[in-house]
Design a protein that fits this description.
The complex is a heterodimer of chains A (158) and B (312).
Chain A lengths: L3 H13 L3 H14 L5 H9 L11 E8 L2 E8 L4 H14 L4 H4 L6 H5 L1 H5 L1 H30 L8
Antiparallel strand pairs in A: 1-2
Chain B lengths: L9 E2 L1 H6 L6 E5 L5 H5 L6 E2 L17 H10 L7 E5 L5 H12 L5 E4 L2 H7 L29 H9 L3 E4 L3 H5 L23 E2 L15 H11 L8 E4 L5 H12 L5 E3 L3 H5 L42
Parallel strand pairs in B: 1-5, 2-3, 2-4, 4-5, 6-7, 6-8, 8-9
Helix pairs in contact in B: 4-9
Classes of the chains: A mainly alpha (158), B alpha/beta (312).
Chain lengths: 158, 312
């Protein structure tokens, strides 16, 4: 089993055994593991509107879909490690998965990890917007794939 | 800092560095992003979080007096402890925590000028050690109503034409936006501002390095341009009372205003209330953009043109 759900379940189990401080430490480990943007995406950041406007901090996201395999590319401001860690968890959960599988990402990941209590209602709500944003990105990709299948001459831009 | 009214309310990072091991001092970090403290904090500093520690988890209110006593006791704070607050975002949450400590009558509270940002600019070390102190017995005072305004009082204050300062962004003030650019909407149904409130965005009080502007600059901003008066009862508000805690601090401690209250219900409460007056547009009584104003003004609000701030 290597579905989005099973990967999330593994992470959730890891978090749920920890106290509040340890949960934040593990979240920081995820944040530190988020790779920096490649030169290609650095260049695209300047020209494409990839900022997550619902989010309280500077977050740029690209949802890439190739041969029904997903990759989430992200850049999060260093002064927002909580957001960065959460984005890294979502990126890990959907990496290489199919679009349909990734659409099953639940909204209550933070609650199940026990992080909602550590972060408080308002921060939890802000982070939840990231999951919605990623899912919207996936739906847009799927729609684009459908259009290009119907009209094969059209090039598929990310 | 010489010309601030209460210069002792601010300490420099250098002062803090020299008092890290001082048992009479407790350093408190309050951040927007909680993981920052875990990542690294000033050695010996405890964390007090505005959401998890300072707010009641059921009622929309602050923790009660017993809860505050509990919180201070758990962090080894005594009534006579000098408590130094600092944090991210130019000390927003540090000022918020400072205000809650003052609400319960803690005597010696100070802000580390420049917060986390200035500390890091100066290349000072951060520690990821776990910090704990022996529990203390803390006795708090009843809430000080002199610094907190509740809705009914704001309504009366507004009706009698007293001073209000709205510290949100110009777009939130005018009603174009319901929340800060790039911040989630925390649920206000209506946009605009309380009639008569002048708009002085909180960020105008701080420099790029997170330190407060000079007394001269702050006086020009609040007294000369915004025409606030040192002795006049004044209420500051924002969206949830956090940015206005910083303005409350600036007015009360740096400029010596004697009657400033923070309206912590702020726009999330006012923008959802039934039948409270609201105006839209860039002027205090909304008249400069009459075409855009969709809220009818009661006769008592038909006031003459008031201050607008240049450039914002």
């Amino acid at each position: 089993m290597n579905s989005v759900q099973s990967r999330l379940d593994t992470i959730i189990t890891e978090f749920s055994d920890l106290d509040g401080r340890e949960k934040l430490e593990l979240l920081l480990d995820f944040a530190n593991g988020l790779p920096p943007l490649s030169a290609e995406y650095q260049a695209r950041k300047a020209t494409e509107d990839r900022r997550v406007h619902e989010c309280q901090t500077s977050v740029f996201l690209w949802t890439e879909l190739e041969h029904d395999s997903l990759t989430l590319i992200a850049e999060v401001a260093p002064e927002a490690p909580t957001v960065k860690g959460f984005v890294a968890i979502v990126a890990h959960a959907i990496a290489g998965q199919s679009a349909m599988d990734a659409l099953s990402l639940p909204d209550n990941i933070l609650e199940r990890m026990g992080l909602a209590e550590v972060l408080g209602i308002l921060r939890t709500r802000g982070l939840r917007a990231i999951v919605s944003h990623v899912k919207r990105g996936i739906v847009q990709k799927l729609a684009a794939v459908e259009i290009s299948t119907q009209n094969p001459t059209q090039t598929l831009e990310s | 800092m010489g010309t601030y009214t209460h210069p002792d309310a601010l300490v420099s990072p250098e002062w803090v560095a020299l008092h890290i091991s001082d048992p009479a001092v407790r350093i408190v970090e309050s951040n927007e992003d909680r993981a920052l403290y875990t990542q690294g904090h000033i050695s010996g500093a405890v964390e007090i979080d505005w959401q998890v520690d300072l707010q009641d988890h059921v009622c929309r209110d602050y923790i009660d007096r017993a809860g505050f006593e509990q919180l201070c006791g758990a962090n080894g704070i005594k009534p006579e402890t000098t408590v130094i607050f600092y944090g991210d975002k130019n000390n927003w949450w540090a000022c918020y925590a400072f205000w809650v400590f003052k609400l319960y009558g803690h005597k010696d509270c100070r802000i580390m000028n420049g917060g986390r940002k200035r500390w890091q600019i100066e290349g000072r070390p951060l520690s990821s050690d776990r910090v704990s102190y022996e529990r203390t017995h803390y006795v708090a005072l009843e809430q000080d109503s002199a610094i907190r305004a509740l809705r009914e009082e704001v309504l009366k204050h507004q009706k009698s034409g007293k001073k209000l300062v709205d510290v949100r962004s110009p777009e939130e003030y005018s009603g174009e936006r319901l929340h800060m650019p790039d911040y989630p909407n925390e649920g206000a149904l209506r946009g605009g501002h309380i009639p008569g409130a002048v708009n002085v965005p909180w960020a105008m009080s701080v420099n790029d390095d997170g330190t407060f502007k000079t007394a001269k600059e702050l006086t020009a901003l609040y007294v000369k341009e915004a025409q606030l008066k040192r002795r006049a009862p004044t209420i500051a508000y924002c969206r949830i009372g956090e940015r206005s805690s910083l303005t409350w601090f600036v007015l009360s401690y740096l400029l010596g205003f004697s009657k400033v209250k923070n309206y912590d219900g702020s726009w999330v409460e006012w923008g959802n209330c039934v039948r409270v007056p609201i105006v839209q547009g860039s002027a205090p009584y909304g008249e400069s953009v009459a075409a855009e104003a969709t809220v009818a003004l009661p006769s008592f609000l038909a006031a003459p043109a008031a201050t607008t701030l240049p450039g914002l």
